[in-house]
Amino acid sequence: MASMLKFCTVCASNNNRSMEAHRVLREAGFNVSSFGTGTAVRLPGPSIDKPVVYSFGKPYEEMFRELNDRDPKLYKSNGVLLMLDRNRKIKDHPERWQENHGQVFDVVFTCEERCFDSVCVDLLNREPALNRLVHVINVEIKDNYQEAVKGGKGILDLAQRLTKCGDLDSEIIEALAAWQEDYKSLPALHQACYY
User: Model confidence over 102-152: pLDDT tens digits?
Assistant: First the structure.
């Protein structure tokens, strides 16, 4: 096990950015989960104004089979089948952050500012039953496969740095600032919240 810290990755649909970060963290031995903050799972479709929409909870395997049957050429060329193939090897289905009240994390990585805002607002609106600090860090990543791979590597490096902190709560700002110097193309935000 890479550390005792429990990590979470979050994007809008729990399909691209959060799942790539989930994959690299898991492969490095970290305890990690992933979620989406959207109202539904939206994947690129035949055109920008015609996304493929699924409910959270629909298995990645079923999405993969349906889209492969529907138009394999389109969904291979736009990277959706590659993404879903990766996802089905990591976990069963996309999960929604707002429906997750049973797990507690030390660090939540979001991949877009609106997801960061959703996670922070959700945590602020919960009853602070545990009085336990959670660090929410946004690493801004464009929503395409190539940028998700770059962002996942950046999140892995940041997670590794955070595990080296003797006292995460007091050293996180310094660790984040040092990381940001090396990853200027991945703007970051930080907010301390509570469970």
Answer: 899 999 999 999 999 999 999 999 876 888 999 999 999 999 888 999 999
User: Tokens at residue 109, please?
Assistant: 């990585």
Cα–Cα nearest to 124, from 38, 194, 36: 194
Q: Which pTM does this prediction carry? A: 0.95
56 vs 37, 50, 96, 99, 189, CA distance in Å? 10, 18, 6, 10, 26
Return the number of other C-beta atoms located less than 10 Å from residue 124's C-beta: 11
Q: Which of helix, strand or coil describes residue 129?
A: coil
Cα–Cα distance, 173 to 124 (Å, whole number): 21
Lowest mean pLDDT among 32-46, 66-80, 125-139, 169-183: 125-139
d(Cα 63, Cα 137) in Å, to the nearest integer? Answer: 30
